[in-house]
Specification:
Number of strands: 5
Shape: globular
Strand order of the largest sheet: 2-3-1-4-5
Strand content: 5-15%
CATH architecture: 3-Layer(aba) Sandwich
């Protein structure tokens, strides 16, 4: 994975990279699409969902340790492609820090070193940490409706541990969108 790390570096000093980050079913994808439309830019979808949905459809299996590296590579590739299409703003539905958190949570502290190395690079302008005050939307890939507050604390603790800049988004869809655009506008005008 090391050869792919360069693509996460800003291609210009003015490029703002925003990551939507947080527990499952907290509105990240919805907000990523809204922000990309609002700013007329591209957004990077969560590769893990696509990968795991295919795995479920074909094998009726959930994520396994051997899936982590292919998921990470897929996420990095999606971001690399999106970076080629943007001028000054990229919205990421997730990044490898989220994969690191989930890996360590589900596998008793285990996370492949390649993912840890890439996930802990300071390549993003801001993390928008989504709070768990949105309605839970069940699907076959989501499994922790009663652990959302615990997961939120774990996600926030990881940001603090890494020293990455972040803001918490709470409230309904409109409130989150408004707060996110205020944060992004400040970065763009900064």
């Amino acid at each position: 994975m090391e050869e792919k790390s360069e693509h996460t570096r800003n291609k210009s000093a003015e490029l703002i990279k925003v990551v939507l980050y947080g527990p499952e079913s907290t509105g990240k994808t919805t907000l990523a699409k809204q922000l990309a439309k609002h700013y007329k830019t591209h957004w990077v979808p969560e590769y893990m969902r696509e990968y795991l949905q295919k795995k479920w459809d074909i094998e009726k299996k959930f994520v396994e340790k051997e899936d982590l590296i292919p998921i990470a590579k897929g996420q990095l590739e999606l971001e690399k492609k999106a970076l080629q299409k943007v001028e000054n703003l990229l919205i990421c539905d997730t990044n490898l820090l989220e994969l690191k958190v989930y890996s360590e949570y589900y596998y008793d502290g285990f996370c492949p070193s390649e993912i840890k190395t890439e996930a802990t690079k300071d390549n993003y302008s801001i993390y928008l940490l989504t709070y768990v005050d949105t309605p839970w939307e069940p699907d076959i890939l989501r499994d922790r409706p009663n652990n959302r507050e615990e997961m939120f604390r774990i996600f926030e603790a990881e940001l603090k541990k890494q020293g990455f800049p972040y803001k918490i988004l709470k409230g309904n869809e409109e409130e989150r969108f408004k707060k996110a655009t205020e944060i992004i506008d400040a970065l763009l005008n900064g």
